[in-house]
Design a protein that fits this description.
The complex is a heterodimer of chains A (about 500) and B (about 350). With about 500 residues, chain A is mainly alpha-helical. Chain A contains 18 helices and no strands. Chain A is globular. Helix content of chain B is about 50%, strand content about 5%. Chain B contains 14 helices and 5 strands. In chain B, helix 4 (about 65-75) crosses helix 13. The chains are: A mainly alpha (about 500), B alpha/beta (about 350). The interface of A and B includes residues 489 and 495 of A.
Amino acid sequence: MLFNSFQFLCFFPLVCFLYYIIPFKYRHLFLLAASYYFYMCWNPQYALLMLTSTFITYLSGLMIDRAEKIEEEIRRVRMKKLSVAFSFVINLSILCIFKYSNFLIDTINRVFSYVHIQPVNVSFDIILPVGISFYTFQALSYTVDVYRKDIYCEKNFFKYALFVSFFPQLVAGPIERSKNLLKQIHVKHDFRLERVQYGLFQMLLGYFQKVVISDNISVFVDQAYDNYHQYGSIELIIATIFFALQIYCDFGGYSNIAIGAARVMGFDLMENFNTPYFADSVADFWRRWHISLSTWFRDYLYIPLGGNRKGRVRKYINLMIVFMCSGLWHGASWNYVVWGAINGAYQVVGDILKPVKTKIGKVLGSNPLSFGHKFLQVVVTFVLVDFSWIFFRAKGFAHASKVIKRMLTEWDPWVLVDDSLFELGIGAKPFHAIMVSILVLFAFDICKYLKVDVLKGMCRQDPWFKIVVAAFFACWILLLGSYGPEYSAAQFIYFQF
Amino acid sequence: MKKYIRTGIWFIIFLIVSLFAYNGITEMTRLKVREDDAIRTFYKQEKDSIDVVFIGTSHVYHGISPMDLWNEYGMTSYNLGTGSQGLALSYYLTKEAIRTQHPSMIVLESWGARYPESYQTSNLPRTHMVVDSLPLGKTKIELYKDFVNQVLPKDERLEFYFPIIRNHGRWQDLELKDFKRTNEFAKGQTLSTGIRLQTEPPIVDECTELTDKNRHFLEKIIQLCNDNNTSLVIYTIPTADFKHYAEYHKCANSVIKMAEEYGIPAIDFEHYRSEIGIDYSLDFIDREHLNTQGSTKFTLFFGQWLKGNFEITDHRLEERYNQWNTDYLYYYNYLCDNQGIALEERDEDIEN
């Protein structure tokens, strides 16, 4: 079930209503059933996979808890480590089989073809289980948290299963930590109007990002990238900027819907996107972009690898490993790895050049606190990040190279004035409407950047004002959103006869 | 407690505002085609003011002129013809006509039998135009149950319940006519004044077997009229020679034959071409449909036949129907202002 489906629009209010009228001691069971129903609407069989992951990590928690009672230290530590390994090996194996098996075979075959060995003729006809990367990481974080004693061992299987499968963040995050979400499952959430309103406004914002901006501009991006040989620099540059917005509004919008939906039911999920394109360095970008994933990698991979405690070279190696893994997490393809590597390299190079940058700034008399300096940093960061998105969006490394080549060589500034831009799948009127929508989001993000909580401010308004604003944005989404059969005036032409 | 009541009141206000907003944008983006205008204008007619309702395909909305019937015979009629109207939709429109106007007569055209499935599943936009235009009520719910939920595949159902899903992209093509209805005076007729040269088709007397679905809906229409003491007349309207003419005329003949079996007055006007005075060089807008000139000729002939065979009240001197005289003036002026212009012949064969 997708958030932007009619099914969800019926499912969510019903679940919320029942959730608040059910006695507290049964609520977790109800939410668990609702979450599994939510997941099984997509593919009932794959719910078994999630159940397996849940069971393994639950068991690992119990094993670690039991190991804690062993008095002999060496045995205790060994048992604990074995329990963590048990959880990681099984969970990551499931993830590898379902997400990376074809990618691995393809990679092996490529290597074989270089050394003239007969390729492996096996291919798995597997559908990628929705949300597998999200819930696997979430479940694994529990194992490590129990191991580190950051969280108690959860004895109630159903409550733990709800932590793994909690439907608002099940398929697209945020990847929650047991420290945050598991504890909240034990707390009784009463109906609080302010929270519900805040959650609903946040969901509305999410739908606005996803259905109005992301899904609409994706048409332009797809057209430009799929037919890049027909377009010049300007179209491809605009398409790349649009892709940055598309992916932000897609992930960010989905996260807002998830966080808002959870908030309606009284749960606080972690923030996942914090005005990422206002970041003033690539490192800052990664503190603002997909925060739940970045912090996961920081806590459960970067720090265990030694972080920055083992010297500069080791720090850089660790950074590259983390970012390449992050790339691989996003998709089973080498272009994601390249995308991750570019982002890692940005940070390594940025760190190496930091003294040089400071020195040049001093020589040129630049004021690091001035708006102009900050603005330049934001623009440069955006350009760097957007460049890396090319590898994320392209169908492969070769495709990305060709797009970049055309972007740099086929200069065609006249398309900005001759209406050619309106021939990339979005007509003039929708194009302008999307631009207005992007400006609205931009204004919202500026407020957020300046630490002004627009949604909170909205909740404090008079009821009539809230109703009018909500109705206005709902109509905006309904009219301009991308849903239903594709619209073309031509399909209605024969009506006139 | 006070707080909960206040919240409850605001929630209800929120629901009402949302409903109004949704209704507003649904209405705004709805495709304003003639079917839609005709059906919605039908509901605006004064209660029980219509004596005769014409039901059928595009042949009807091109070929029947309620205003000429009024001017010549004082007959109050309405044209509920819609494009590609299969017999299933004819049944639901008949039901609505009887429910809202209690007419003394339903006049059903036979060309609709050419659609073997009764419902136009192969031409959903046409079906949309009718279903979306009907107000929510018993008939529409029946249509949802029998057609949308049973005949249509799952992924196409939702847009019948929420037309905004299909139409929302129209915001970019909105124009004046999306906010203002036109030609309401014509009582459902489409005023096509253009002229295209046509040829006379041969008379076809053979019948073909009606499909079970068509037979089923025809029986339902007959039953419905019987139950409501409404006379039913079935007829075939003259057309020019179009592709599949012979095949489709056989279907129309089968409807006439079935009507006769049930003792329903039925007539095929293809046999009265010369009596009507149809001129194939002047009376058609395309290969199938009469233009306004042809429709006036045919309507007057048909009106005389109806007058001769049934008791239909002449309302011309009744004060209640003064508006009809004004409407006729609009109609007359429209025809004077839009004299028939010879149009170029088109290759396409419009299959309505």
